[in-house]
Specification:
The protein is mainly alpha-helical and about 150 residues long. It is about 50% helix and about 10% strand.
Length: about 150
C-alpha cells in the first residue's frame, strides 16, 4: 500500500473496470438484438486478494460486481458471465516468482499443475455457446486453486 500511486490505480481500474463497462454499454444494443453474451475475464484474486496486489484485486472485484450487475441489467436478452483463471500464465515480471515459488503455488493447487490458455478459452467457449441458462456467474478455471487458498 505504501508504494501505491494514483497512476497505477487509474491504469488498473481503467483497464479492468472502466473499459469493460463502457464497451458493454456500447455493445448492448446489438447484443440485445442478437441475444448475445458478454464474458469478462476476472480473477480468483477478486475474492481472495493477495499481498501486494491491492489495486489489481480491487479492480477484479469490481469487474465481478459489474458482471453480475450487467447480467441483471441486460437480461433476459443478454447473458453476462465471467471466467476467473488461476495459474495459467505467470506474470511477465521475471522477478515476481522464482521456480521454487511457482512450485509452492502449484503444490497448493488441487490439480497440482498450471492450466493453459486453451483451458481458459474452453471455459469462454462453453459459456458463449452452451451455457444458455447461465448468467451472472463466475466460473473459476483454476485447477482447484481457489479451494486451497
Amino acid at each position: 500500500v505504501g508504494t501505491l500511486t494514483r497512476t497505477a490505480w487509474d491504469d488498473l481500474i481503467g483497464t479492468n473496470l472502466q473499459v469493460p463497462l463502457f464497451l458493454s454499454q456500447a455493445a448492448a444494443p446489438e447484443l440485445q438484438q442478437t441475444q448475445g453474451t458478454i464474458i469478462n475475464i476476472v480473477d480468483i484474486y477478486a475474492e481472495r486478494p493477495r499481498k501486494d496486489f491491492v489495486v489489481y484485486s480491487c479492480a477484479k472485484a469490481g469487474l465481478v460486481a459489474l458482471t453480475k450487475s450487467l447480467a441483471r441489467e441486460l437480461g433476459p436478452a443478454v447473458r453476462v458471465n465471467g471466467v476467473a483463471p488461476g495459474v495459467a500464465l505467470w506474470p511477465t515480471d521475471e522477478n515476481m516468482y522464482d521456480a521454487a515459488a511457482k512450485q509452492a503455488i502449484l503444490a497448493q493447487t488441487a490439480l497440482q499443475r498450471s492450466g493453459s490458455p486453451e483451458d481458459i478459452a474452453g471455459a469462454v467457449k462453453f459459456l458463449a455457446l452452451e451455457g444458455h441458462y447461465i448468467t451472472g456467474q463466475i466460473l473459476a478455471v483454476d485447477g482447484g486453486r481457489s479451494i486451497s487458498i
